[in-house]
Amino acid sequence: MILRRGMMERREFIKSAAIAALASGLSPHADASDTTQAMPYRTLGRTGAKVSLVGLGGHHIGRESVSEADGIKIIRTGLDSGANFLDNCWDYNNGVSESRMGLALKDGYRQKAFLMTKLDGRTAKAAQQQLEESLRRLQTDHLDLIQIHEIIRMEDPERVFAPGGSLEYLEKARKEGKVRFIGFTGHKSPEIHLHMIEIATRHNYTFDTVQMPLNVMDVHFDSFGSKLVPVAKKLNMGILGMKPMGDGVILKSNTVTPVECLRFAMHLPVSVVITGCDSMDILKQALDTAKNFRGLDAAEVSALLKKTESVAQNGEFELYKTTHNFDGTFKNPQWLG
Questions:
Q1: Beta carbons of 98 and 117 less than 8 angstroms apart
Q2: What is the rounded average pLDDT of the residues 177-182?
């Protein structure tokens, strides 16, 4: 009984410490006040690039529920409003997301964008084929950032760094001017991300960026924010926060609103918060939240974490961690090469 009480007290202490850290130490970047058209910008880690506080996710604009015209309008309106960070992936909606974004980037819009896409290939051959397809669809001769997608297995890092692995080709592509910066993404476990960084360190390599889910639920369950963000900050990697609402699943908990989700994610030490927008109303919500964001105080952070604590314990609303629902390469292992 005494042992159990001691364990419970220790858990409460850890949670209190996490809340205190989020309320004070994990505050917005000092350069978040650098604005254009009232849009805050932050520095993308070691790249030195300035990116908008809110980034536009590419998956949503390629969904069947969104017309091509609306997808183009969402991207162009975002860029015109100062949201320069664009997210995409080679596999999103069988290439439709990239094709629509490519159309949106015509007529001078490419110059307004910090363009990122992702690829799944773990071999140099697969990475080259996917990158070349992405460049064609996006109608550009280079990407500002390419990321190795879905590092969700403990063996993925070894495959990336192996002779003939995807990183071998991506560094070649960088030298050829096809990509400026290289990073990696994943949503399964911070331990897998940490393993990727460990393997990179063994090869005397540091990725420019790392993308991970960061939201009001993450703090309570296998937390990327607690375990990975401090390591990435120490290496001066650009930190890309995604899934501020868990693709809408977090909202089903009926504990937080969309704006609260966005504001909490923006409070963290991220370079950009990537969110999917499938309508002009949702886009306006994201843009307005970013433009009006001035940070959260300790009481606001504590209140949000207390509201989500009881429902976040087992990852029920973070399905990307606990299920294969979000694992495209699990369903399509051939994409890995």
A1: yes
A2: 98
